[in-house]
Amino acid sequence: MQNSLIPLFRKVYDSSPEVLSQAPGRINIIGEHTDYNLGYVLPAALNLKNACLVSRRQDDKVRLWTENLKQKDEFSLHQIAFSEENKWVNYIRGIFWVLEEEGCDLQGIDGLIWGDIPLESGLSTSAALEVSMVHGLNTLFNLDFPPLKMVELARKAENEFVGVQCGIMDQFISVFGQENKAVFLDCETLDTKLVPFRLKEEGLQVVVYETGVRRELAGSEYNRRRSESSQALEILRKIGVKKYKDATQDILEKLKDEMDDAVFRRARHVISENARVKKAVRAMEKDDFNLLGDLLFRSHESLRDDYEVSCPELDLLYETGKKFPACYGARLTGAGFGGSGIALVKNQEVTAFKQELLENAKNKGFVQPRFYEVEVGEGAGSRFLDLEELR
Ligand code: GLA
């Protein structure tokens, strides 16, 4: 598909594109709901991505075409409004909005958007859309923003324009991902460490299991989890624990009576998950996939019981994985409430594992899940097309 994007751009706009940009989706190996709690995460970029072709216009019009949805959008740089009807356009409008807020000297553009990340799957299509657009515009208009600034701009678009109070993980990994590596990120200091993910050498495969359940509750429930975990932190602060990274289960236990049960469990998840991320980094550095798998299972249990962001379809992945000898570990990935999960499975057993899950889902009357055997890919990039490509 990617090769036919230039001819497609010409067909839509009757002119040539100037810049190609792309940004990947992600899986989060472990460290869920810890980013906005300024803790640790361990995501990896996928070989699935969103691509944009853009060219400058002489006026202030932004014209867009999405090949996946076969829809267009058009707006003026001087009037960037939120669209109630069309969700996808807000991620792009949000990018133009933040760049205008930054005082950038922009012109209108013609833009073509295409991607192979399954929509609404929990694999971060929205961050990939935002990051690919900000990257492309950065190159097209010589804005000179360093990569971390692009992460911040994309997140600001999502927080303030789209209105989702997400943490920094998705935009960060979409910009900074590296092939065959996971990125250990401290979401407070933004210090990172690349962690090898030597799956092929071990004969393992990451299987993405997409439940097909739309994350409708996610918006409001996500924000509620944010507020519950910060309520717990307020109580921890009273005894001098300033951040989750400094808290321990022993300290938390002492404050149990001062917290509502749900608030207590939210904090217990954040503290235990931070500890699991650090252990997972050590496990991956030693290629200890048994330990890594065990941490994935335990992360799921905590997300299910303490953070309460799982659903029966995601629990099925965990339960099937637990009983399947060639599955090292499995858990929900991303915000939860539907979306996708990941499992670490031996290559030769992947087909049997998927079969088992399909049957179990059918017996339970669930929507038929979908599977993707993903690889760990590169972070975002953008460049001017050369004459050869445009010939
Ligand atoms: C979503 C958000 C991220 C993160 C995860 C949960 O993917 O966009 O910032 O909070 O949920 O870990």
Whole-number radius of gyration?
A: 21 Å
Q: What is the global morphology? A: globular
Q: How much helix is in the residues?
A: 40-55%
Major beta-sheet overview: 8 strands, mixed
Q: What structural class is derived from the secondary structure elements?
A: alpha+beta
Bound molecules: alpha-D-galactopyranose
Oligomer: single chain
What are the segments in which pLDDT stays under 50 over at least 5 consecutive residues? none
Write up this protein.
The chain is of the alpha+beta class and 391 residues long. It has helices at 5-13, 87-101, 125-140, 147-162, 169-176, 218-238, 249-254, 261-285, 289-305, 312-323, 350-364, 387-390, and strands at 19-30, 40-56, 61-66, 71-76, 109-115, 181-186, 192-196, 204-210, 327-333, 340-346, 370-374, 381-384. Helix content is 42%, strand content 23%. Helix 3 (125-140) crosses helix 4 (147-162) and helix 3 (125-140) packs across helix 5. The longest helix has 25 residues, at 261-285. The protein starts with a helix and ends with a helix. It is built from twelve helices and twelve strands. A hairpin with a 4-residue loop joins strand 3 and strand 4. The strands form two sheets. Strands 1, 2, 3, 4, 5, 6, 7 and 12 form an eight-stranded mixed sheet that branches. A four-stranded antiparallel sheet has the order 9-10-8-11. The model has no long low-confidence stretch (mean pLDDT 96). Alpha-D-galactopyranose (GLA) binds at residues 32-33, 35-36, 166-167, 169-170, 334-335.
